[in-house]
Amino acid sequence: MFQTFLDSLLSLTFPQACQICENSVENYADGVVCRGCWKRTRIFSGNEVLCAKCGAFLLEGKSVKTFCRLCDEHFYDRAKAVGIYEKALAAEVIELKKVPHLSRTLRELYYSAFENSDFHDADLLIPVPLSKKRRIERGFNQAEVLGKFLERKTKIKCDNKTLARTNHTPMHRAAMDRKAREMTVEKAFEVTRPNLVEGKNIVLIDDVFTSGATVSACAEILKKNGAVRVDVLTIARAV
C-alpha cells in the first residue's frame, strides 16, 4: 500500500523523466529509469556464455565453462556482475556517482548477483578505494555504498580502511587500451592493515568492471599481504 502511494506521489507530484528514453518513471523502486528500459537491459540470468574468470560476456546461449584468455594474468580469482553496462544499469551507475543512493530495483539485482555467486564463504567485503582528491570532489565512494548495503544484507563485514589508494590516477577513458589502463593503476594501492586480510577470502566491491586493471591491481596487493582468494562483484560489466 505504501509503495503504491509513493508511486502515485512520484507520478503526480514529482514527475520524473527516464534518463534513457524520457518517458515517465512511474515506479519509485526503479530509480532514474522507467520499467520499459529496465526490461530492455541485459541482466545476466545464466542463459549466456560468460568468461568463468572475468565474467566477460561472450555470447548468448546455454552457459558453459569457458575462458576469454584476456584475463589470464589478472590477480583476482573470479568476477561477477549484475549485467551489461548499458541502458538501465549504465544510468544507475552514473547516478550513483552523483548521489549515494541505490534504487530498490538495483539493490535487489545486486544482492541476487551475490546470492547466485560462489562468494558465500567470503570473510570480508572491501570496496575499491578512491583517491583522496576524488573522494573530496565526489563527497563519497560509490563502492562503499554498495559494500555497506551488502554488509547489511549478508552480515559480512565491509572494511573500507584496510585497502587504500596511494596516489591519484586519471579516470579511465573509453579510448584507453588495456595496457594504458594497467599502467595507470600500477602500484596505486596499499594494504594498511595486513593482519586483517591475511588468510581471508575477500570480495572486492565496485560499480563497473571495464578492463579489470583496477580490481586486478587491488587483488595483487591483497594477495601479497596474505589474502587467500579475491573475488569481484560489480553492478555492470563493460562489453
Tell me, briefly, the overall form: globular
Low confidence ranges:
none
Structural class: alpha/beta
Number of structural units classed as domains: 1
- Fraction of residues in H or I helices: 25-40%
| Radius of gyration computed on alpha carbons | 18 Å
* Strand line-up in the sheet with most strands: 3-8-7-4
Please state the second-level CATH architecture: 3-Layer(aba) Sandwich
Describe this structure in words.
By secondary structure, the chain is of the alpha/beta class. It has a single domain (15-237), classed as 3-Layer(aba) Sandwich (Rossmann fold). It contains 8 helices and 8 strands, in the order H-H-E-E-E-H-H-E-H-H-E-H-E-E-H-E. The protein has helices spanning 2-12, 35-39, 87-96, 104-115, 132-138, 142-154, 178-185, 213-224, and strands at residues 48-50, 57-60, 78-84, 124-127, 163-165, 189-191, 201-209, 229-237. Strands 3-8-7-4 form a 4-stranded parallel β-sheet. The protein has a two-stranded antiparallel ribbon with strand order 1-2. Strand 7, helix 8 and strand 8 (229-237) form a beta-alpha-beta unit. The longest helix is centred in the middle third of the chain and has 13 residues, at 142-154. It is globular, with a radius of gyration of 18 Å. The termini are far apart. The relative contact order is 0.16. The mean pLDDT is 90.
Give a topology summary.
Elements: H1 2-12, H2 35-39, E1 48-50, E2 57-60, E3 78-84, H3 87-96, H4 104-115, E4 124-127, H5 132-138, H6 142-154, E5 163-165, H7 178-185, E6 189-191, E7 201-209, H8 213-224, E8 229-237
Offer a few descriptive terms.
8 helices; 33% helix; 239 residues; alpha/beta; four-stranded parallel beta sheet; 8 strands
